[in-house]
Amino acid sequence: MADTYDIVILGGGTGGYSCALRAAALGLSVALVEKEKVGGTCLHWGCIPTKALLQASEVAEHAQTAGEYGVKATFEGVDMERVLSYKKKIVDANWKGLQATLKGRGVETINGVGRLKDARTLVVSTDEGERTLSAGRALVLATGSKPRSLPVPGAEIDGEKVITSDHALYLERVPQRPIVLGASAVGVEFSSVWKGFGAEQVTIVEALPAVVPREDVDTSKALAKDLKKSGMKVVTGAKLTGVDKGADGVRATLEDGTQLEGDVLLVAVGRGPVSEDMGFEDAGATLDSGFVTVDEYCRTGPEGLYAIGDVIPTLGLAHASFSEGFLVAEQVAGRTVTPIDYAGVPRVYYCHPEVASVGYTEQELTEQGVEFDKAMFPFTHNGRAMMMKGTGHVKVLAGRNGGKVLGIHIVGPRATDLIAEGQLVYNWEALPTDVAEFIHPHPTMSEAVGEAHMALAGNPLHG
């Protein structure tokens, strides 16, 4: 016989567990099915462990540049065993806390592999045997994603010479000549990690014309400039055509015949949905290239079937998944909800320097025929950023002749924290003149956000 719950969720990553926690808080009975560890990619193979490595890398960079501040310090290299132990401690603490929170909210977490029997029934294979779960109100697909491979001769993932981010998280050595294929979040972040750890030569290869290609044109230019200044080799507009593996590493051949040699090739060309062989289509869900297609309320197929997180073709960001989980839980509980404005979801990259944005890029506004004004404030004019030897800028886009703010783009120190204010500005449809009246504390990097708006409002200060 089936065990019946109000809501059954397949996948315990950020989308799945946020949906479970919110649904339980609203008084629903919840079953959360996860084949590995609750927390999913973000907690165990993505956001948290990579940022722990980036924090360690930043400390290493401080040691290498301490003399520029008059501080006597020596960089003797990185003890990867201790770095990995530090990373594991952070992950485990979060994992332990999440498990306790789920239990405390009354969510039943089931460890096993699930397959849909129909749009309201999930069959789960566990170590103790098979269980059938019946969803009284909703069944939610939150099965996440996995690193993509590349159909290029020799580029097959072997976990040693050709690796994904999953392997990179557990490397017990610092690669000295890594070749990083892909210059979006995963690519630029691991490039920053290895460069900070003392790699001799980091090479980034991007098939599109710019690094962080979905970001604003000026962000891409500024980041590329800083990456090159740090000593990295950055190759854009270049496609990989072949990989040769040897005893000492790999040789990557590009479309124009250029050959690059390194000791490891990181394939960071994005993540693909996990949706195969789980009965999604048989249950009525619609798939496109493996992604579950949904409407603005995350609904797919028959009534009561939803999909959230990396398995749907939205932003692929953990914080977007949190919102999708809440959106679904509140619908199932009978609450009125507002669809997510994905342009208003901050996009963040924890490379060195950091990148963050919200709203539309200059390219997007131009393509849509939207008339706009823009202003940029450089961090080289900000006292606090100068103390940190920060570069980059804050760029604000607004509707022509005093219109609302349409996009905020930051590249520079602590950009991922500064974008929180940008999110409020964009989502509350503020005018540059509104923000220009805010008084930002001095000296802080947040002043750069204020000064960019002041410039756009026609009353610049330091710019």
Question: Please, could you describe this protein's structure?
Answer:
The chain has 463 residues and is α/β, with parallel strands linked by helices. It is 31% helix and 26% strand. The protein is built from 13 helices and 24 strands. Strands 1, 2, 3, 4, 5, 6 and 19 form a seven-stranded mixed sheet that branches. Strands 8-15-9-10-11 form a five-stranded parallel sheet. Helix 1 (14-25) runs parallel beside helix 8 and helix 3 (47-65) packs antiparallel against helix 4 (80-104). The protein is globular.
Q: Mind describing the biggest β-sheet?
A: 7 strands, mixed
Strand content: 25-35%
Low-confidence stretches: none
Indicate the CATH topology of the largest domain. FAD/NAD(P)-binding domain
What's the number of domains?
3
> CATH homologous superfamily name of the largest domain?
FAD/NAD(P)-binding domain
- Considering DSSP H and I runs of 4 or more, what fraction of the residues is helical? 25-40%
Topology diagram in text:
Layout: E1 3-10, H1 14-25, E2 30-34, H2 40-44, H3 47-65, H4 80-104, E3 108-111, E4 113-118, E5 121-126, E6 129-141, E7 145-147, E8 162-163, H5 165-168, E9 178-181, H6 185-196, E10 203-206, H7 217-229, E11 233-236, E12 240-246, E13 249-254, E14 259-262, E15 264-267, E16 271-273, E17 287-288, E18 291-292, E19 305-307, H8 318-332, E20 347-349, E21 354-359, H9 362-367, E22 372-378, H10 383-387, E23 393-399, E24 405-412, H11 415-427, H12 432-436, H13 446-456
Parallel strand pairs: 1-2, 1-6, 2-3, 6-19, 8-15, 9-10, 9-15, 10-11
Antiparallel strand pairs: 4-5, 5-6, 7-16, 12-13, 13-14, 17-18, 20-21, 21-24, 22-23, 23-24
Helix pairs in contact: 1-8, 3-4, 3-6
